[in-house]
Amino acid sequence: xxxxLLPVPPxxxxxxxxxxxxxxxxxxxxxxxxxxxxxxxxxxxxxxxxSFSKTALRCVLADAGIEYDHARELGNPKPYRDLYRxxxxxxxxxxxxxxxxxxxxxxxx
Length: 109
Fold this sequence. Notes:
single chain, mainly alpha, 37% helix
């Protein structure tokens, strides 16, 4: 009897950009980890640092050969982020809708 081999899913890594002062530092960390595609899960892909907003980040990543996708449905809505910031992590985690609101399809994508 032959087993059917299922495709191996790609590694899933997480990273934040807050500690990276420049896009070059951020892209360097991604490249060093072998990242080929970045999925931006920020609800609103904006940043006070101009180079880290959606359009600018997409361009910097493209120059480095890294694909950029935005998956808004995986972002943490502001009311839940506010709970985390106010020290109510447990409450924020209980409300965070990730896989309870149909966004499992976004994770699969």
